[in-house]
Amino acid sequence: MAESHLQSSLISASQFFEIWLHFDADGSGYLEGKELQNLIQELQQARKKAGLELSPEMKSFVDQYAHRDDGKIGIVELAHVLPTEENFLLLFRCQQLKSCEEFMKTWRKYDTDHSGFIETEELKNFLKDLLEKANKTVDDTKLAEYTDLMLKLFDTNNDGKLELTEMARLLPVQENFLLKFQDGNGYIDENELDALLRDLCEKNKQDLDSNNIPTYKKSIMALSDGGKLYRTDLALILCAEDN
Q1: Same domain, 154 and 221
Q2: Which residues form the EF-hand domain (predicted)?
Q3: Given 3-state DSSP classes, what are the helix, strand and coil percentages for the chain, each rounded to the nearest 5?
Q4: Same structural domain for residues 37 and 78?
Q5: 32, 128, 162, 243: most buried, per Cβ within 10 A?
Q6: Residue that terminates a domain, selected from 19, 53, 84
Q7: What are phi and psi of 225, to 5 degrees?
Q8: Is there a single domain that holds both residue 78 and residue 123?
Q9: Overall domain count for the chain
């Protein structure tokens, strides 16, 4: 099934979902190692079998990752490689989701009760808003389809809603600050928090003052568990109201 989809000149939202599930064998939400190499190999074979050349996006992708052992891509990167349905693709190209700072501003807009979750209806409004900002409209049926697919793609614990750490997968891999928690035991220590804060301050100079990093760090680490700051701890901090 994935082979026939990879041969298509235009991949629908549902076909994109099937392709992702096919290659994300461990369900991690990212393609790396053997998964990524399988994608590259099957993509090349499928296009060749159909008598099709690789698109410029596909060729660039293959050139970048074919000979790397440390490559890693998320759903966003794959959506840019494959000829995906335009309106669905726009959800991954939105300017509001290209950096962690803009992502958090968008998140807070829809997580109005600061629960750390976006419910199904909130997600539907979120997607509708993104499309409208791109001057695109879809009917209720298509919007419901997109909402359902987004839940299937990102709702890793199948609770019918998206938490911050799940929704953050809409960010490009290099911008996803929560990936720092995927190494080891799912937490960062004070030194790693320091590096994370410096990176955030550098990218968001208007709102964060690097001179206040020691204060930020002290306040955040006060909520840690014996010097270990878990992903859920940081998510709660980021979802809180701005002071």
Answers
A1: no
A2: 11-46, 98-133, 142-177, 182-203
A3: 60, 5, 30
A4: yes
A5: 162
A6: 84
A7: -105, 95
A8: no
A9: 3
Range of the domain at 223: 180-239
Flag whether pLDDT at 27 surpasses 80: yes
In angstroms, rounded to a whole number, what is the distance separating the alpha carbons of residues 115 and 156?
Answer: 18
CA distances to 4, 31, 88, 94, 96 from 137, in Å: 29, 31, 11, 14, 18
Say if residue 113 is in the same domain as residue 79.
Answer: no
- Domain of 124, CATH number, reads 1.10.238.10
Tokens of 74: 């998320």
- The confidence band for 140, taking pLDDT boundaries of 50, 70 and 90, is very high
Rounded to whole angstroms, the Cα distance separating 96 from 94 reads: 5
| SS3 state at 45 | helix
Q: Tell me the per-residue pLDDT of 28-80, one tens digit each, with 9 for 90 and over.
A: 888 999 999 999 999 999 999 999 999 999 999 999 999 888 899 988 889 88
Enter the tokens of residue 229.
Answer: 């700051």
Taking only the tens place, the pLDDT of each residue in 190-231 is 887 887 778 767 766 656 677 888 887 887 777 677 787 776
Neighbouring C-beta atoms of residue 232, cutoff 10 Å: 15
Q: At residue 112, what are phi and psi to the nearest 5 degrees?
A: -65, -25
Under 8 Å between Cβ of 23 and 82: no
Rounded to the nearest angstrom, the gap between the alpha carbon of residue 118 and the centroid of all alpha carbons in its chain is 15
